[in-house]
């Protein structure tokens, strides 16, 4: 049996690390919004290179929008969770709920 290793995505790392549901939700929403926006502008991302000719950036980096959106959503969600868990008196309870 051969076991192949692969690099985990941001979402997979956060799932294993136990990120809270707010961070997970905003990460997913951010990925979808980023992917949507990237798909809207992908036809305009053509670059004329002297040796290679016309190159479309979306062909070279097809998941860039999703990856950037996921990272931004994750950061925003993590900040919200950190703020909620740092509240006096209720922060401990919220921290246990969020994971």
What's the structural blueprint in terms of helices and strands?
Elements: H1 10-17, H2 21-41, E1 46-49, E2 53-56, H3 57-60, H4 64-85, H5 91-98
Antiparallel strand pairs: 1-2
Helix pairs in contact: 2-4
**What is the structural class?**
mainly alpha
Q: What is the global morphology?
A: elongated
Distance between the termini: 36 Å
Average pLDDT metric = 82
Helix content: 55-70%
Which runs of at least 5 residues are low in confidence (pLDDT < 50)?
none
Tell me the domain tally. Answer: 1
The beta-strand count equals 2
Strand order of the largest sheet: 1-2
What is the ordering of alpha helices and beta strands?
HHEEHHH
**Cα Rg:** 19 Å
The total count of helices amounts to 5
Strand content: 5-15%
Q: What is the chains' assembly state? A: single chain
Main sheet makeup: 2 strands, antiparallel
Verbal overview:
- The chain is mostly helical.
- It has one domain.
- It contains five helices and two strands.
List keywords for this structure.
two-stranded antiparallel sheet; 99 residues; 2 strands; mainly alpha; 64% helix; elongated
Provide a brief overview of the structure.
It contains five helices and two strands. It has helices at residues 10-17, 21-41, 57-60, 64-85, 91-98, and strands at residues 46-49, 53-56. Strand 1 (46-49) and strand 2 form a beta hairpin.
């Amino acid at each position: 049996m051969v076991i192949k290793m692969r690099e985990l995505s941001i979402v997979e790392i956060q799932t294993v690390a136990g990120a809270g549901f707010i961070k997970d939700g905003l990460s997913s929403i951010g990925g979808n919004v980023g992917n949507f926006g990237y798909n809207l502008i992908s036809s305009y991302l053509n670059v004329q290179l002297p040796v290679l000719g016309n190159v479309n950036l979306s062909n070279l980096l097809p998941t860039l929008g999703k990856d950037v959106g996921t990272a931004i959503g994750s950061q925003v969600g993590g900040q919200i969770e950190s703020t909620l868990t740092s509240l006096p008196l209720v922060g401990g309870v919220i921290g246990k709920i969020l994971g």
